[in-house]
Input
Amino acid sequence: MPETNNYILYVDDSEDDVLMAKRAFKKNKLTTEIITLTDGQECIDYIFSEGDYQGKNNGLPLVILLDLNMPRVNGFEVLEHLRSKELTKQIPIVVLTTSDAENDIARAYELGANSFITKPLQTEDFFRTIIDIDMYWSVHNKAP
Amino acid sequence: MTLASQSKLISIFLLILVSITAVVYLELLNSVEKERKSYDRLSEISRGVFELSLLTSEHLSIRTRRTEVQWKRRHASLTNYMLVASRTFEGESVKQLLRARVALASLRKLFFKIVIAEHKLVNATDKEREKHEKLISTLATQVRITSQQLISDISRAGFHSLNSLKHAEKQASYILGAVLIVILIALVFVIIWIQRLFILPIKDLSRFSEKLIEGDYRSRTNIKYNNEIGYLAKSFNALATTIAEKIETLVKQSDRLEESNIKTEALLEKTKTTERQYKDIFTAAADSIFTINADGIILTANPASAALFGYKEAELVGENIKIIVSPEHYANHDSYINNFLQTKTKKIIGIGQHVEGKHKNGTLIPVHLRIADMYRDGKIEFIGVLRDMTEELKAKEEAVKANELLEITNKELESYAYSISHDLRSPLRSIDGFSLVLLEDYAESLDEEAKDYLKRIRAGSKKMSELITELLNVSRIMKEAMKLEEIDISALAKEELKPIIENYPDNKIEFNCESSMIVMADKPLIQSVIENLLNNAVKYSHKNKHIKIEMSSFIEDNKTIYYIKDNGSGFDMKHENKLFKPFQRLHKVNQFEGSGIGLATVQRIISRHNGKIWAKAEIDKGATFFFTLS
Output
């Protein structure tokens, strides 16, 4: 049974966004570790120690930031998969995406997302959002 | 008084008359009878007196015991009779009779004296005998005298009685005569009465009815009795009035009939003309026209029918309609007609439908068929108009295909635009993000010029992301379903203007708005329209210290036209056609801020509401935007 570790899992195929998120963490001197993955398949493998991550017990993240539009396995499929497993049922998942289409929002919540955030267009706002999510889920919302 | 009661009165009167007559007659009869009886009694008495006088004479001559007894008996009976009779007499007779009775009594006394003398005579001496004989003879003389007197008295009484009898009889006949005369007069009176009561009015009535029979319905009888005849006369008058009215109505009707006959003739003439026209139409029509009877036999077919189905006109007439209907429609056709004949339900009658016709050479022709029922000489016929639909169907199919293609393309384009807009955001964020990273992390190694360029890169990407947002909004407006409701756009405008005013604290904004303009529209969309138009109005007027905005409506060609007018910089009407195109701006970029997509959005919203939008303006004299909503 993997323990819950003090890290955030950020799954996004946009390398630029990942890079900026990481820089924002470093620049704001946040203690929480941020682990970035590039698509849904990698996310599932990472959590369940399958595929490329076979044999590695990574533990469960504090919160998962999940993009929707990704190659191989997309965000909706990841949501569906994680919510169907007992192990990952309780992990908070924040959908972080460029889409603000109503049916995307509705579907994400239906599949068990805890929150849905549209990526802000301004870089400053984007940084601010990432840091706010970390603060909220890793500090204020920590399990007792 | 009614006739019935009057005739009753007459009857009672006659009855009384008859009764009086009867009573009088009986009374007279009675008095005469009484007189006769008295007379009879007197006769009886006088006969008795005679007999008694005869017996006296006899006794005086023979002087026997038998005559003595006979005389006494007769005398007794006569006395008795007279006593009884005297009670019934009256007047003069009674006196006579009383005298007679006195005489009779003295007669008896005398007779007894004679008898005593006779008895004495039997035993008497001769001397005595002589004396007795003398006495007897004197007594006899007295008896005779008394007898004579008696007879004369009775005779006188009888005479009196006879006189009174005669008198009574005479009186009776007089009275009877008088009564008869009275009855006669009464009868004459009654006859006159009846005549007046019945005969004359009835004659009047019969004269009047004869007049009616002759046709004089305007004459009226003036009989005015307050009885049955009077009522009858009234009824006759009413009858005459009714008949006169009816006749008047009849006359009017016949006049009208004549009029309508004239009209009918005119109509007939017109009908003939119309018929000729129809015949011409029938012959010249481009559509195929048939008439068939209830059995489906073709009665007439026009040249177009012949051309459409490849037959000659003469070949078609008399054939069953089936020869030009595709086998598939045989059954339907019959059942439709039967159904109509039985139930009068017009399943296809009067309603057009698409069927297949059959050409002489066997090819099927798509036709549009309209059937109407009509009655000629009381028989039902059907008239069918068939239009060759081959070309139209082809064109329609092509149009549908083209439309479908267009719709698909449109949808694809829309979702394409949507996803492109989305996908554009990511690279933009990278451009902006890394420019920022450079500015922040490498500030020391960059000179001012480089920093300025990086800032320009960031400004450009910001502008672009705003445009993308606007584009996404426009495309969302077109994608989302509309919900129409009643909206007070006056109130909405006042609400929308508030945040706009806040952006222009240096200007005085005067807003004149017609109150309670109600429209049927989708609320978020119409809100966007009002906001955009008001925003533009303020934006392009803000160089004036005093901004005047007017919002109102008027009606033209049954449509309500709403408008928003400002006193701003306006525009050149030669650019009017560019006004509602996206990213088209009519002013220099630095003159007024804006994305250039607001009016494009407004126009799309208005056209989604089946409305129109247009504008009128002049440079520096303000602009007016007009719009309609369906």
